[in-house]
Design a protein that fits this description.
The complex is a heterodimer. Chain A is built from 4 helices and 3 strands. By secondary structure, chain A is mainly alpha-helical. Chain A is elongated and about 65 Å long. The two termini of chain A are 30 Å apart. Chain B is mostly helical. Chain B has a domain of 67 residues. Helices cover 73% and strands 8% of the residues of chain B. Chain B has a 3-stranded antiparallel beta sheet. In chain B, a hairpin with a 2-residue loop joins strand 1 and strand 2. In chain B, helix 1 runs parallel beside helix 3. The radius of gyration of chain B is 25 Å and the shape is elongated. Classes of the chains: A mainly alpha, B mainly alpha. Chains A and B meet through helix 1, helix 2 and helix 3 of A and helix 2 and helix 4 of B.
Chain lengths: 118, 200
């Protein structure tokens, strides 16, 4: 696997979690979600590919979408977390933390044994 | 930023290509919603670019950040068609998803070709079963030099040596159904595998 493929897989794997976290604080429309992700992460490579993911998360029942008119010169589609989305987010956060801890421990152990051999 | 006619045509051109690309894979109501959402994104971005001196540069940058319309359409199709096909198992959804993969990847094309042959073969058997009671003398097992070579329908019969009675109907139905179910099951498993691979 090339480094680029690995990075792409890492990005894809964490994008769902990042989107759910972004809307967990309150409803946001597509561009606001993208801007939030861009402010905190490097996960958005092509902005247009975020919308299909939002659509999938909505179909899976994790997000709820609603068009809001009159707030801006054009309508905005707002996304908010559903109850099932909130449950999934709690699970995903716990799993992510556990996963990250294990990898960190593995990296620390590798570092320590490298120092010990030198 | 207020767009000039040139800027407006560039944005509308982008949305037109996106809509055309989405239409080949997605239901009309999904296409309308997707295009509306992307247009909302573009208008928002353009509005926030107030004070920028060069309109053309701004529009091109915004469109580049959004991604080429075909790429955006592919992302929609990949997220939508495969998920729908795996979840529902409906014939139209499966065919649409297989067609999408066939149009976008080499492996998808080869797999799609295999599934197309499978589906067409099953439909041929179904056609034989339907035609036999209507044209009993034109449908049967064709013999050449005393050997059975095919189950076929001939219009007109000509010199073809066609044999076989009405037992051909249940036989053709059985074969057609078997091939159809096998192909359909294979296509669904293939799409399921593809989806897992995409998510991993």
């Amino acid at each position: 696997m090339s480094h680029e493929t690995w990075q792409e897989q890492l990005r894809r794997g964490s994008l769902d979690l990042a989107i759910l976290l972004t809307v967990s604080t309150g409803p946001r429309y597509g561009l606001a979600i993208i801007q939030h992700l861009e402010a905190f992460t490097d996960l958005v490579v092509t902005e247009g590919t975020i919308y299909p993911i939002l659509g999938r998360l909505t179909r899976e029942g994790l997000l709820e979408a609603e068009w809001v008119e009159g707030e801006a010169p054009h309508a905005r589609k707002y996304y908010k977390l559903t109850r099932s989305g909130a449950k999934r987010l709690t699970t995903m956060k716990a799993e992510w933390r556990a996963f990250a801890d294990k990898i960190s421990r593995l990296m620390d152990a590798a570092e320590e044994s490298r120092h010990a051999t030198h | 930023m207020q767009l000039t006619d040139t800027g407006e045509s560039r944005v509308n051109g982008y949305l037109f290509v996106l809509e055309r690309s989405l239409k080949s894979f997605l239901p009309p109501e999904v296409v309308r919603d997707a295009v509306r959402e992307i247009e909302s994104h573009l208008r928002e971005r353009i509005a926030s670019a107030d004070g920028a001196p060069n309109e053309r540069e701004v529009v091109e940058r915004i469109l580049a950040e959004l991604g080429p319309p075909l790429r955006v359409a592919q992302a929609y199709s990949a997220e939508r068609t495969i998920d729908e096909a795996v979840a529902t198992g409906r014939f139209v959804a499966i065919v649409r998803a297989v067609g999408h993969l066939a149009a976008t990847t080499v492996m998808g094309f080869l797999a799609g070709l295999g599934f197309l042959i499978g589906y067409l073969t099953s439909f041929c058997f179904f056609a034989i079963a339907v035609l036999k009671p209507i044209f009993p003398n034109n449908v049967g097992v064709q013999f050449i030099h005393g050997f059975p070579v095919s189950l076929s329908a001939h219009f007109p019969v000509g010199n073809a040596d066609l044999r076989g009675g009405y037992w051909i109907i249940p036989f053709a139905l059985f074969c057609g159904l078997g091939i159809f179910v096998g192909t359909h099951h294979g296509a669904r498993r293939y799409l399921s595998w593809w989806r897992e691979r995409r998510l991993s």
